[in-house]
Structure prediction request, 407 residues.
Amino acid sequence: MLTENQNKNQCCGCMACSQICPKSAITMEQDDQGFAYPSVDKNKCIDCGLCHKVCPMEENYVGQDAVPDIYALCNKNRETLTESSSGGMFSILARWVIGQGGVIYGVAFDESFSVRHMRADSMEDAARFRSSKYVESDLTEVYAHILEDLKAGLTVLLTGTPCQISAVQKFLLQKRADCTNLYTCDNICHGVPSRKIWTDYLTILQDKYMDSNDSITYINMRSKKSGWKERAMEVRLKNGDLDEVTKDFSFNKIFSSLYANRPSCFNCKYTSHKRPSDFTLGDFWNEKSAGITFDVSNGVSEVLVNTEKGRKLFQLIKDQANCQPVSKKAAWQPHLEYAAKAPKNQAQFWEEYNSSPDKEALLRRYLEGTFMTKVIRKASPILQKTGLYSMAGKMYKVLLVKKSNTP
Ligand SMILES: Cc1cc2nc3c(=O)[nH]c(=O)nc-3n(C[C@H](O)[C@H](O)[C@H](O)COP(=O)(O)OP(=O)(O)OC[C@H]3O[C@@H](n4cnc5c(N)ncnc54)[C@H](O)[C@@H]3O)c2cc1C
Ligand code: SF4
Ligand code: SF4
Ligand code: SF4
Prediction:
């Protein structure tokens, strides 16, 4: 049985425990930050231990080395590339799986712009998964369907954060599912912000910046309208857009300020080159120092091919992309080595947030981040250009991160 006072930084909210429990003894309950945690009904529990067996936070990949094949990669299809967060590798994988008559599990906005994992059996549907949504996604739909798909012999591509992938894999293992046809793809992971703040943010946009007869038709948190390195947020309405508002009041800034992140993300067990998935995708920021020879102006993915299964598939699909092998050093990324460091005043942020009548003013005050996040934001592009990014990141780890995120 999970401990009654499950330490919050030891739970990534994947729901695997509640989905596996044979006695339906576990329910997920939201705390005042909008993160769900398991609550166990002791009267129903039979102490079978399954909830521990599926828990991805009981793994620890940190400090474990691995030697993935690493590529810088751009989808050759210009339109798909523009709609993708970085180089559009996800869509190449998705197209192959759909071509096998398979299905994709990925993250999309639903009709009210809540962020959830959904199932797609066509490329048209899977296109909704393009572009990163920097909000914790709801995994309910995956557990409900993936087992059936695998039993039916379908080829399945599961995408998500590494803790989510690990959770679903452990769930499938306990269900004795045949995973021969399952391909998995995680992302290099900075963390996931609270759904509660995302919902409040949408309410602020609706109440303050839109006419009562207007509505949001499209949100893109990785719009390439003003260049892919801008990581801009784009919100379109029935009657116009919110470009002026999202320039300085962007949810992406809340994401990068780290205040809204789930506590487990500061204690992440997946910041390593060793990965639970066949593929890992990220943004390739070091293209200058890595000597990439093709055009990367519209975005480029960092692709880690982690398994033999992944290598075989990569050989079949790589012609759909411009790609180049790169060294581990050139592909260095902070979150392949260490977790983000929690802002010192994060507890104060939540206290103020939950009692503030003016959430916008409070978010604007905090979203610029701490002194350190401001320095990192300003310095990163320069360090990437000069090839000093990995050296600076390693120094940051030694000086500031190393001992601060331990449970
Ligand atoms: C929460 C989060 C944090 C990230 N942190 C980093 C980072 O620190 N460094 C880095 O280099 N890259 C990070 N990424 C990855 C990066 O944003 C791109 O997803 C990656 O470059 C793949 O690009 P693409 O063009 O192939 O994917 P796209 O075609 O844009 O496809 C996006 C993929 O991400 C999945 N996805 C979208 N939203 C979510 C979500 N909320 N949760 C789980 N999966 C989601 C979709 O299902 C799809 O598979 C992060 C992504 C997410 C979602
Ligand atoms: S030990 Fe078994 S019965 Fe008890 S909560 Fe965990 S999964 Fe459910
Ligand atoms: S990480 Fe997932 S499996 Fe582990 S306690 Fe939290 S919700 Fe349950
Ligand atoms: S940072 Fe770690 S714990 Fe948080 S969502 Fe990403 S993989 Fe999961």
